[in-house]
Backbone:
């Protein structure tokens, strides 16, 4: 079964450096098939019969054993990622795919966390939470966005990692090729 592994916080600055060829090789040695990566920020498409939860746990352990890093891994099946793309609740307003982000969560946010995020959004920003994803439109960029800082940080109460819309759609294309 094709699955997408999203690693949190690798290759951002000097910390948690992982070379993608070495990561592909390590995952292949550990029994995963069709291992492909996209850009340097920890996007992996691979085949595994493990459940998404077990796959995330195994990838985390493989990275810890192989690179000595404690990296969060979130997994979506190819079909789950296709649903994320098809849903696209901000398609009418999110016109720049680099400023349109999807935050993938390990579990749904509780109502109070969602209200906290909504309170951080500026007048021009948009936010829609659906299940284990939060779609966020940052038309003025993410550099000074308090919403983005919270989505990209660790204060959500669940594991999370964000990707821009270009990356999300490219990962689906990779899974389909």
Residues:
């Amino acid at each position: 079964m094709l699955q997408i592994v999203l690693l949190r916080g690798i290759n951002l600055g000097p910390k948690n450096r992982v070379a993608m060829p070495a990561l592909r090789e390590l995952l292949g040695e550990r029994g995963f098939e069709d291992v492909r990566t996209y850009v340097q920020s920890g996007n992996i498409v691979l085949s595994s019969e493990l459940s998404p939860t077990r796959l995330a746990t195994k990838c985390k352990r493989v990275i810890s054993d192989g690179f000595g890093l404690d990296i969060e891994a979130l997994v979506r099946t190819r079909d789950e990622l296709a649903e994320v793309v098809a849903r696209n609740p901000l398609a009418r307003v999110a016109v720049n795919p680099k400023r349109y982000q999807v935050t993938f969560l390990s579990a749904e946010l509780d109502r109070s966390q969602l209200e906290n995020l909504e309170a951080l959004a500026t007048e021009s920003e948009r936010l829609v939470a659906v299940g284990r994803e939060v779609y966020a439109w940052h038309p003025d960029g993410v550099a000074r966005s308090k919403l983005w800082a919270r989505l990209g940080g660790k204060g959500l109460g669940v594991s999370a990692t964000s990707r821009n819309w270009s990356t999300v759609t490219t990962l689906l294309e990779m899974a389909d090729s």
